[in-house]
């Protein structure tokens, strides 16, 4: 709701350049501090039954360490998860470089089968060699929505003056937009049908390339539903129940404009939720200037990728940002950050993002209490502020931080 209590859902724009509705005013943030928030989202009730409800045996998790410094955070994370939920079976599969060495293929059948066989996957990060595995986890397993919580906790080394205002979730399209790369030579665009004006004509005579941005109703709809379900879940804990869409719908009416309309219309079907929208450049500014106005933020694949790192920077850095990718019947969990090649082998990478991704996985598997226990222990380490890694201004090694967490939950 906005301050007047009106729902701000724009009318449907004509495809290909219909007049777009004026931007709605931003909502006020009513529910902060009402009760403890759910730091990680649950599986989306209307889309997928929680794993725990359909499980007949303890879960199996496929573990893929990934490249560069990623194994240094995933190994202790698995150790902690094992001790919190001993019945979970962790099955390691080869990362890209090792798979290439053994099978001559960075994503061999063995790795794909291990992923398929498991109930979900815990993934470190790809620094290049493991990228085909990432492709399989996203498109092979159709994990269509990427959830990236953005929340400052006391002790996080944020560059913001008032980081306590930051507590929202990015919901990112994980399959379409400009991903996966579908690129070609500019000359191939000669048959482009949307070339209505002289200034839209591709410069066919020039040497160059293009990339394709895909936006299907089916995918945008399920991402929108996931965002609404998440907003509902947060609303139950006192959040305002506000879905924000950000996109370049002014310039890309048929793709970002379509996504915008689908999100707006989906929110309309959830009477308790409110909606706001901003052009992506303005939204980027708001993430810095007024993060307290954000609750659940829906973004395209590439916008979500970029702004998730910006958001991460606002709370204190990539070492702190977890993420989960959900599909209808599969999920995988990875930090927002990459393989941090500059830190590889030094034993100083911050494991918080990986640990919190592990907590999101525990929740997905139905180990809610254990997830909270892990999150609370991490929060305590930050509140105390004595055992922090160098990205957070401390001198602790990765393992010293991990041990500090272990001591606080055991
Ligand atoms: P990056 O996220 O690996 O690192 C960016 C900066 O953040 C570096 O200075 C790094 O040291 C720091 N950083 C990252 N994680 C940290 C942590 N846990 N603790 C402390 N500092 C941390 O991004 P990059 O350097 O641009 O990319 C490296 C590789 O990772 C590239 O190949 C990129 O494609 C890949 N990548 C993979 C994923 C993924 O697998 N999901 C995500 C992002 C980037
Ligand atoms: C991420 C990464 C990936 C992405 C890369 C490694 C393909 O940056 O997960 O944030 O762009 O989605
Ligand atoms: Mn990224």
Can you describe this structure?
- The strands form 2 sheets. The protein has a 10-stranded mixed sheet, sandwiched between helices. A two-stranded antiparallel ribbon has the order 6-7.
- It starts with 50 loop residues before the first helix and ends with a helix.
- Mean pLDDT is 88; it is low at 1-43 and 45-49.
- It has helices at 51-54, 70-84, 96-103, 109-117, 131-140, 217-235, 256-268, 280-289, 301-315, 352-364, 368-384, 398-409, and strands at 60-66, 89-92, 120-125, 145-151, 167-173, 183-185, 209-211, 242-247, 274-279, 296-299, 324-326, 331-333.
- It is α/β, with parallel strands linked by helices.
- The protein is globular and about 65 Å long.
- The chain is built from 12 helices and 12 strands.
- The structure holds nicotinamide-adenine-dinucleotide (NAD), 3-isopropylmalic acid and manganese (II) ion.
- Residues 305, 309 line the site of manganese (II) ion.
The residue-averaged pLDDT reads: 88
Based on DSSP secondary structure assignment, what is the total number of beta strands?
12
Q: Pairing-aware structural class of the strands and helices?
A: alpha/beta
How many whole angstroms does the radius of gyration measure?
Answer: 21 Å
Shape descriptor: globular
List the ligand species. nicotinamide-adenine-dinucleotide, 3-isopropylmalic acid, manganese (II) ion
Strand order of the largest sheet: 2-1-3-12-11-4-5-10-8-9
The biggest beta sheet reads:
10 strands, mixed
In helices, the fraction of residues equals: 25-40%
Topology overview:
Blueprint: H1 51-54, E1 60-66, H2 70-84, E2 89-92, H3 96-103, H4 109-117, E3 120-125, H5 131-140, E4 145-151, E5 167-173, E6 183-185, E7 209-211, H6 217-235, E8 242-247, H7 256-268, E9 274-279, H8 280-289, E10 296-299, H9 301-315, E11 324-326, E12 331-333, H10 352-364, H11 368-384, H12 398-409
Parallel strand pairs: 1-2, 1-3, 3-12, 5-10, 8-9, 8-10
Antiparallel strand pairs: 4-5, 4-11, 6-7, 11-12
Helix pairs in contact: 2-10, 2-12, 6-7, 8-9, 10-11, 11-12
The chain binds nicotinamide-adenine-dinucleotide, 3-isopropylmalic acid and manganese (II) ion (MN).
């Amino acid at each position: 709701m906005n301050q007047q209590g009106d729902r701000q859902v724009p009318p449907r724009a004509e495809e290909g350049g219909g007049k777009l509705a004026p931007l709605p005013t931003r909502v006020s943030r009513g529910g902060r501090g009402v009760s403890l928030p759910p730091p990680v989202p649950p599986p989306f009730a209307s889309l997928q039954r929680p794993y725990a409800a359909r499980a007949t045996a303890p879960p199996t998790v496929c573990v893929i360490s990934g490249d560069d410094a990623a194994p240094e955070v995933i190994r202790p994370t698995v150790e902690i998860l094992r001790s919190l939920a001993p019945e979970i079976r962790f099955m390691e599969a080869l990362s890209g470089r090792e798979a290439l060495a053994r099978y001559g293929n960075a994503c061999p059948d063995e790795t794909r089968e291990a992923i398929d066989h498991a109930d979900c996957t815990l993934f470190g990060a790809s620094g290049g060699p493991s990228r085909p595995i990432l492709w399989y986890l996203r498109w092979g397993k159709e994990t269509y929505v990427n959830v990236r919580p953005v929340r400052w906790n006391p002790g996080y080394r944020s560059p913001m003056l008032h980081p306590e205002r930051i507590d929202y979730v990015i919901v990112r399209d994980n399959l379409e937009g400009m991903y996966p790369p579908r690129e070609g030579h500019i000359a191939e665009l000669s048959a482009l049908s949307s070339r209505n004006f002289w200034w839209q004509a591709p410069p066919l005579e020039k040497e160059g390339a293009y990339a394709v941005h895909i936006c299907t109703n089916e995918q945008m709809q399920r991402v929108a539903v996931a965002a609404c379900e998440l907003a509902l879940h947060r609303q139950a804990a006192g959040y305002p129940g506000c879905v924000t869409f950000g996109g370049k719908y002014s310039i890309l009416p048929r793709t970002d404009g379509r996504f915008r309309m689908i999100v707006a219309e989906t929110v309309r079907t959830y009477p308790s939720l409110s909606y706001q929208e901003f052009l992506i450049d303005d939204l980027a500014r708001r993430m810095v200037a007024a993060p307290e106005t954000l609750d659940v933020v829906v973004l395209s694949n590439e916008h979500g990728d970029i702004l998730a790192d910006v958001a991460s920077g606002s709370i204190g850095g990539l070492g702190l940002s977890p993420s989960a990718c959900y599909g209808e019947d599969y999920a995988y969990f990875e930090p927002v950050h990459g393989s941090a090649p500059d830190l590889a082998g030094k034993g100083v990478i911050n494991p918080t993002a990986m640990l919190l991704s592990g907590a999101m996985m525990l929740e997905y598997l139905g180990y809610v209490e254990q997830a909270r226990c892990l999150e609370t222990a991490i929060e305590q380490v930050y509140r105390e502020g004595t055992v922090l890694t160098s990205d957070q201004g401390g001198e602790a090694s990765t393992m010293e931080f991990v041990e500090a967490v272990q001591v606080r939950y055991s």
